[in-house]
Amino acid sequence: MSRAQLFERITDQANRPNPYPLYEELRETRVAPQDNGSFLVGRYYDVMALLHDPRISSDLHNRGPGLPGADRAGDGPESFLKLDPPEHDRLRRLTTRQFGPPHSPDRIDSMRGELAELVTNLVDGLDGKGRIDIVDDFAYPFPVSVICRLLGVPHEEEPRFHAWADALVAAIDPRRTSADNEQVKAAQQAQMEMAMFMAGLIEDRRRNPGDDMLSGLANDSGPDGQLNTVELVTNSILLFIAGHETTVNLITNGMLTLLRNPDVLERLRAEPELVPKAVEELLRFEPPVHLLGQRTPIVDIEIDGVTVPKGSPLVLALASANRDPERFVDADRFVPDREDNQHVGLGSGIHSCFGAPLARLEGQMALAELIRRLPNPRLVEDPPPYRPNPVLRGPRHLLVDCG
Amino acid sequence: MGSDVRIVIVGASLAGVRAAEALRGQGFDGSLTLIGDEPYEPYDRPPLSKAVLLGIMPPDHAALPYRSDLDAKWLLGVRATTLDLENNRVVLSDGDAVEFDKVLIATGVRARPWSNSSEAALDGVFTVRTCDDSRRLNERLSAGPRHVLVIGAGFTGSEIASVCRERGLSVTVTERGPAPLVGALGGVVAAVAADMQRDHGVDLRTGVTVTGLDGDSDGRLCRAHLSGGTALDVDVAIVAQGSIRNTDWLAGSGLAAGPRGVTCDAGCRAFDINGIVTDNVFVAGDVARQPHPLYDYQLLALEHWGNAIGQAEVAAHNMIHDGLRRRPHLEIPAFWSSQFGVNIKSVGIPTYSDQVVITQGSVADRRFVAAYGFRGRVTAAVAFNQGKWLDFYRGLIESAAEFPPDFDVMDRADPFEVRPSELPDPAVLSHGPTVAVTGHLPTERRVEFVSLPK
Predict the structure, then answer these.
(1) What are the distances in angstroms from CA A150 to CA A143, A295, B42?
(2) Is the pTM of this model over 0.80?
(3) CB B384 within 8 A of CB B340
């Protein structure tokens, strides 16, 4: 099959367990024009350069009519993920004030105790079970609770957030066409319900502020002014979605990789201080986000003699860049203490992962506890069944026998 | 390289330590000696004019981490006084000498002291270069001086002024030029820096020099006299008038070493005084003066954190490889600063420009990118709170892209107006000769240093 169908093959469910040979094929050419009008890029230095290129937009309004994704522009108010500067900068700046340095340097670090408690309780629940599902029993409930606590969503509302997350994530699938009406409707329904709920919560936080992030966002007034309710709702939903499925995949892909490399698992059991580096390597080796399909050049750009016309869908294959042997020694090997590990698993440039500090901490604490507590874990099924989504790639279930 | 080879590194700061790490990392298993004139383990300098002065970072937290298996001999608190290339040894201030097969010069720079030594000795007059400097100044700023004077509005002076304002201290900044940072960034961008200072309550005085400092009967600083005849009551003055390269100890060594640094090739090999490259003497960091092909092979001495590391790694590599396996140091220079709540980042050499254009963002909001050009190509870019774009501009510089950029970008600055960058022409020599050529026969032709006319 030709390179012109690479994107189709990458997104084919049959290749979900192991898309890496396709990425290798992608890297043989620097730019792969696709039959559907999009352009695929998968080499490290190219992906890195495009992530920092001010001629590349994240706003689908810049996509040429009739090209994939163009119909999704104007779905509703957009989060900063799908906006360009200066709007992107303003919204991200306003949101960052409540999340990290310099204005909230301790927000994430101060959650360590709470995170440890959540992790411990979840692993306690696995005690004595012979067979567990890392996804349903652990990796899935954990980040939802964390995000809810960060934002200040009451504990009893967490199950509703699970349901909304499912519907919304299904809609991120790039293979979605306007024919998938039910999925689209379900997502719109979830989006609306969640927006209503968040708007109510924000109203409440305006009247009764707590020390949670939503209270901060609703009441803070910095040099950029304040987020209005629509902006607040849209961006807190972004934090919820982006901070959710990705972390599930980080933890699950992490356990899968460790179970496939028992020597590394043993080593981490003996040297838990190595876990942060191992999580960094996981973000390179099995990143939760494989493809960025949101980018569009606003002028014709040339890469290696190929012109990517203005308005074309540009797909940056992060997971491919992370395995580029021109950048990483032994790129296809999982090296838990790898030095020089400047991967693009969390992106780079102005849209680099907003939640990175939280994702890292969650990944580190979850994996450290699972490694420490699971007795003699063994993989039941390899490869495990995968979720259909090729962008947020991860197993649907990960069955493990213990004891 | 055999384990009987002895490498000596003079200077135990960033460049010296990173070179030592790189040597061991690349398998050098000979003897390794580091000589440092301060009594401390190596430390990082950027926080010294920022977090340490704000009192939010103890100076001993600025320690530089280095690999545990360095297996080096550390000679700390001792100064190198002579480089003896006839006998391949470094003579030390305590009279000892260390022999070497290869030597790396990484002695850096020191703060330029106040020119009048009795005024410089007044209690309350500071420079900031070492962790001791920073610790002492932090103590003094914590004590709540009534009025602070910063002499010189380069990066160090501007950062210190910013710290003073953040601490709520009243501060005057004097700058000989027309605006802060003008020498590094040119008049157009420097005008923004001037507004920033004034908006934050700095009493900024440009086109002004300090002509004298007075002490009281106890030897404490009490007054500063400015050109134009005004006087200011001040109890702290920070002299931030640049630095002096630590090359004095190389006098008579036969190297091309002088006030502008130690000249070396792009592979960090030092030139001797005749302009012939040496085989066993290498240079890295602030003291090195190296040609860069993208800037007409102009010899550049850069006081940048990243440059020190880049040169250290290239020098280390080339100390243990020869011939075609040697590497050039071709990194595009880059530096950053943090002041008045703005993160300033630069790539390339802004002084190597005749034109500048704001390409992205908004000057009024103090978040923008300025691209610099020289003779129709992009040579540098400076970002105020927009640093994440600079990798793109680095690409433009590396590919000698056309200036002004002729494509559209997101958040394009309006108006897109190309202006003179208001910097001295880089093609004009700023100094006279400091050497003379002597002899007539080919075997006699040699170069000698001559002293600068007073």
Answers:
(1) 10, 29, 39
(2) yes
(3) no
**Are the C-beta atoms of B264 and B178 separated by less than 8 Å?**
no
Task: Report whether A111 contacts A149 (CB < 8 A).
Answer: yes
Measured between CB atoms, does B360 come within 8 Å of chain A? yes
CATH among 3.30.930.10, 3.40.190.10, 3.30.70.1400, 1.10.630.10 for A3-401:
1.10.630.10
What is the tens place of the pLDDT at every residue in B360-414? Answer: 999 999 999 999 999 999 999 999 999 999 999 999 999 999 999 999 999 999 9
Contacts of B360 in chain A (CB under 8 A): 54, 85
Q: State the residue for tokens 């959540």.
A: A118
* Cis bond upstream, residue B453 (ω within 30): no
H or E segment to which residue B381 belongs: strand B377-384
Query: Which residues in chain A are contacts of B390 at CB distance < 8 A?
Result: 52
Dihedral sign, Cα of residue A32, residue A34, residue A39, residue A40: negative
DSSP code of A77? S
Q: What is the pLDDT of residue A178?
A: 52
**Three-state DSSP class for residue A333:** coil
CB contact (8 A) between residue A349 and residue B388: yes
d(CA A212, CA A11): 38
Inter-residue contact B316 to B302 (CB < 8 Å) = no
Q: Strands A399-401, A378-379: parallel, antiparallel or unpaired by DSSP?
A: antiparallel
CB B24 within 8 A of CB B70: yes
* Residue A172: per-residue pLDDT: 63
Nearest CA to A307 out of A33, A24, A47, A27 is that of A33
Summarised one tens digit per residue, pLDDT across range B109-144 is 999 999 999 999 999 999 999 999 999 999 999 999
Q: Is B314 helix (H, G, I), strand (E, B) or coil?
A: helix
N-term to C-term CA, chain B: 48
For the four alpha carbons of B34, B37, B39 and B45, in that order, the dihedral sign comes to negative
Rounded distance, CA A49 to CA B395, Å? 8
CB B334 within 8 A of CB B347: yes
Instruction: Check: CB of residue B128 under 8 Å from CB of residue B137.
Output: yes
User: Is there a contact between A122 and A140 (Cβ–Cβ < 8 Å)?
Assistant: no
Is B263:B434 a contact under the CB 8 Å cutoff?
A: no
What the block records as the tokens of A311 is 């308005």
Residue appearing with tokens 């293979």: A175
Give the pairing of strands A306-308 and B31-36: unpaired
CA distance A305 to A297: 16
Chain A to chain B Cβ contacts (< 8 Å): 47
Q: Which range has the worst mean pLDDT, A99-103, A178-182, B219-223? A: A178-182
Paired tokens of B180: 């802060």
Q: Any chain B CB within 8 A of the CB of A41? A: no
Question: B171-175 and B203-206: which strand pairing?
Answer: parallel
DSSP B69: T
CA A290, A162, A92 angle in degrees (round to 5)? Answer: 55
CA dist B112 and A150 (Å) reads 50
Q: What is the model's pLDDT at position A177?
A: 55
Q: Could B388 and A52 be called an inter-chain contact, meaning their C-beta atoms sit closer than 8 Å?
A: yes
**Angle CA A379–A381–A383, to nearest 5:** 105
Contact between A299 and B408 using a beta-carbon 8 Å cutoff: yes
Q: Tell me, what's the pLDDT at B152?
A: 97
Q: Where are the domains of chain A?
A: 3-401
Q: Which structure tokens are listed for B453?
A: 């006319």
**How far apart, in whole angstroms, are the C-alpha atoms of residue B87 and residue B82?**
11
Alpha-carbon distance values, A59 to A53, A75, A230, A295, B368 (Å): 14, 12, 18, 7, 20
